[in-house]
Amino acid sequence: xxxxxxxxxxxxxxxxxxxxxxxxxxxxxxxxxxxxxxxxxxxxxxxxxxxxxxxxxxxxxxxxxxxxxxxxxxxxxxxxxxxxxxxxxxxxxxxxxxxxxxxxxxxxxxxxxxxxxxxxxxxxxxxxxxxxxxxxxxxxxxxxxxxxxxxxxxxxxxxxxxxxxxxxxxxxxxxxxxxxxxxxxxxxxxxxxxxxxxxxxxxxxxxxxxxxxxxxxxxxxxxxxxxxxxxxxxxxxxxxxxxxxxxxxxxxxxxxxxxxxxxxxxxxxxxxxxxxxxxxxxxxxxxxxxxxxxxxxxxxxxxxxxxxxxxxxxxxxxxxxxxxxxxxxxxxxxxxxxxxxxxxxxxxxxxxxxxxxxxxxxxxxxxxxxxxxxxxxxxxxxxxxxxxxxxxxxxxxxxxxxxxxxxxxxxxxxxxxxxxxxxxxxxxxxxxxxxxxxxxxxxxxxxxxxxxxxxxxxxxxxxxxxxxxxxxxxxxxxxxxxxxxxxxxxxxxxxxxxxxxxxxxxxxxxxxxxxxxxxxxxxxxxxxxxxxxxxxxxxxxxxxxxxxxxxxxxxxxxxxxxxxxxxxxxxxxxxxxxxxxxxxxxxxxxxxxxxxxxxxxxxxxxxxxxxxxxxxxxxxxxxxxxxxxxxxxxxxxxxxxxxxxxxxxxxxxxxxxxxxxxxxxxxxxxxxxxxxxxxxxxxxxxxxxxxxxxxxxxxxxxxxxxxxxxxxxxxxxxxxxxxxxxxxxxxxxxxxxxxxxxxxxxxxxxxxxxxxxxxxxxxxxxxxxxxxxxxxxxxxxxxxxxxxxxxxxxxxxxxxxxxxxxxxxxxxxxxxxxxxxxxxxxxxxxxxxxxxxxxxxxxxxxxxxxxxxxxxxxxxxxxxxxxxxxxxxxxxxxxxxxxxxxxxxxxxxxxxxxxxxxxxxxxxxxxxxxxxxxxxxxxxxxxxxxxxxxxxxxxxxxxxxxxxxxxxxxxxxxxxxxxxxxxxxxxxxxxxxxxxxxxxxxxxxxxxxxxxxxxxxxxxxxxxxxxxxxxxxxxxxxxxx
Length: 1025
Known about the structure:
Radius of gyration: 35 Å
Largest sheet: 6 strands, antiparallel, barrel
Strand content: 15-25%
Structural class: alpha+beta
Shape: globular
């Protein structure tokens, strides 16, 4: 089409056509394969839209495994299929394709038999060239090509995460046509290249491929099952040579067990009885195709499935259901014959039982066929663009510059609906801007108000350019987590599923509702139809429009931007929607500290594009002052001290290149007015040095503005600020559990520090200082400087250095902004070949892999780490030496040699705990961190990290064996004391400290062995890790 060619040219995309349509899609792919040279090929059908994470999540596997020919991701559909659209209960059950992409393809992948499905996949060019391109002999070129790749020794992979979404077939007749093509193609492969025979496949692969192809032979067995009771009811013939009771005795347990087993296996991927409906819809259409293709496998041609259509009025599609109407009538005749025989004929016992059994059987068949007929009642489709449910926070900019916080309810390419209260003074058709935050990016879309009903706002996007349209696509379809809830359907319950089938059948007999025809909407539909019919068509020719060079360079830059965050933050990946867990009991709840997000306010009503902020580096001035709240220093909230927990504090650090020259602590909080002032107070200590005392004032329990001067000599690189509570409410004995004993220090209290910068020390032995300081808990920002046109080896070296700094920073997190020029101030890392380094560094002759720490030319307090060499290989060698041998370096410059690095093993990352053996808690933390004392010893934290792709067979839980010991009574009341176990803020189990075996305790005391030791096993669900 001319319009599509012009669109491709306007957005900088390549465009290829060919002079003929031979071999359809496979021919198009082979034609493009011969005119492109990319190492990898990504294939999408025209209705599929990938998320921004598609290449991030898929390409790493292709790069890692050179024998991996293809990686396939699920085909997710954001629009409803005919079953979901037309059946009354269709939206309550998983879509038809979920079982294949949720269970079958995942099982195929276990046997290295996951096959290419035509779209949403990445394929290696070398593998395709090895087999002569895409297969053209069948109409399912995707599976046929995958079979040949596996036979040639290539591997495949399946990533069970929807990273693209497309349109489902809207009408039943189109759905049937698509499945008929699939059936013809798979049977063609079965006849032409039977996977059970021939070279190249392992046994598991043969069975997986044979299962996929033989599946489409279900039509004849399904019809036999549906019509079998008619043999007795209408013809008087017994199809099973056994008495009715014997049939029930043998068949009923099998049916029950089969349904229960499928329900357990399929869970939320396919509900009970729906496979029968899906197959019945297709069965009578597939019988002819099955037989003809088995006899003549080379017959048939590729038909494109029409999608994205509209339907003015609902109707009953006779073309799609007429075979099942005839079948339903025949089954009804058989049912009537059975009822007549049971009620009006004189039968012996065996005949009566046979009539009853076959009548029940035909009723079940009739219910399945009626449900299949209900799918043929097409509902109207007036929307030109499908809506996607998405709950996203948004900011709406009004014409007068005001902002309103909103939450989206659903979005589409044409508009969306938001939940937002209507402010005063907004016109009904006001022009607004809606701002969405997608990760670290802000996306602003112009829109116009269509309707504002209470708190429900209807908008239409006003995209006036390709760039603004791409923003809409990015918000609606491009979010990395857009489709992670694709499996969020109820777990199958057979009786509930049977009820949904009955509800769907009832919809077949509902009265036809009045069709509301909105003039504006119908005019839009008519305009769309006119545009379709008047589209100009290009003449058949060979045409290749390559993307502009500027767009190619931009693609390279975007690729680097995608790869660098993956290398620096390998563990930050996907977000999985899980059921809300039970909260941890009060005694062990923790909160994570963090600063509140801030946002800039662009001028309204026109919102300009956001610029990337400059990295926040250390101040370059020799002296400065910083004011930090206790919350910023690590307090999780107000620090409350009681008689049983008298000590609270925070741990914080000071940069190694800074020294404290002055400090003042400004405190606020409250003290119990019931305490005796002369005997009660809170003592403030810094690194076990006395700072001051917070007194008790009964007349004014709350205090604020209490200032304590802190001696700068007390400060170290790592500091502990403690508050020790001493309280008495009577001169005599005090109950430490009394509610009268308490004191609170607010987390809004501040510590003002006057800091002086120290001269920079250029010494490699101090690494990772001054670039990363382990004593400072805040997230680090470490700029990188790379050449304008970096080689692959330079990027590899930069990735190694960034990975090492990220591992050193650990939980703090690290950001690596990248530039081609030196930053004006602060510390930074420069990576590159010697001849490409900035001239301002003034490095002498480079004679090999070199590591150096030099001064920042424009900042006397800043340092620059230089990783360089004469060639790219030497740059990689220098980076590798830094990552594995930084402790051996010294001086301001070192010439290193390429280290001999042992081959890496899977899952040997130093930050991950090993998975090939049990790991003791004592290996993760010190023994002192696992011991507590007092009435409220606090929480024992055992931090650890695991590989992001841990897999357990059938999602079985990990087992944690916990051994603990409590002091025997009467020191504490062990009967009411407990040990709560949780992970990542989620409660797991609670164990009493009291022993369950009193006799064992008595024997332990007799023989002098430790008393109170217990061992418990706790199951940790994989999704909590």
